[in-house]
Design goal:
Helix content: 25-40%
Largest sheet: 5 strands, antiparallel
Number of helices: 2
Organism: Bacillus salipaludis
Protein name: DUF2500 domain-containing protein
InterPro entries: DUF2500
Pfam families: DUF2500
Radius of gyration: 23 Å
Strand order of the largest sheet: 3-2-1-4-5
Oligomer: single chain
Keywords: Membrane, Transmembrane, Transmembrane helix
Number of strands: 5
CATH architecture of the largest domain: Beta Barrel
CATH topology of the largest domain: OB fold (Dihydrolipoamide Acetyltransferase, E2P)
Strand content: 35-45%
Number of domains: 2
């Protein structure tokens, strides 16, 4: 009889805690996205000489849900620093590791890459 009473007291508390965790995670994700968007908007637009050093994709979903791919390119600037930026699928397909040119970005937002005509240029 005590075990039944325990379950009737514990279950609502457990469900409430799970609900709070889920809502908190959703709110945290929304706030983080808005914060990054705002930070990017207040960052200067920069044009720098850069080289494409790596490309990767991240696939989300699949199975019984629709799969979605995110595309990332790592650029190396003249100082030797590297940055990975998320790019659109069209840009991802046009960039090749080793490409050199002018990268335009704003914070963590990729704005474009113009390949230089002289491919033998070394950073």
């Amino acid at each position: 009889m005590f075990a039944g009473d325990f379950m009737f007291q514990f279950a609502p508390i457990f469900i409430g805690v799970i609900f709070i965790i889920v809502i908190s995670t959703i709110l945290f994700t929304i706030v983080k996205g808005i914060t990054q968007w705002n930070k990017n908007n207040h960052s200067p637009k920069l044009n720098v000489n850069a080289r494409v050093v790596a490309k990767r994709t991240a696939v989300r979903g699949g199975g019984e849900t629709r799969a979605h791919s995110d595309y990332f390119v790592t650029f190396e600037v003249e100082s030797g620093d590297r940055m990975e930026l998320e790019v659109k699928d069209d840009d991802f397909g046009m960039l090749v590791e080793g490409d050199q040119g002018e990268l335009t970005f704003q914070g963590t937002r990729y704005l474009g890459f113009i390949r230089s005509a002289n491919v033998k240029e070394v950073l």
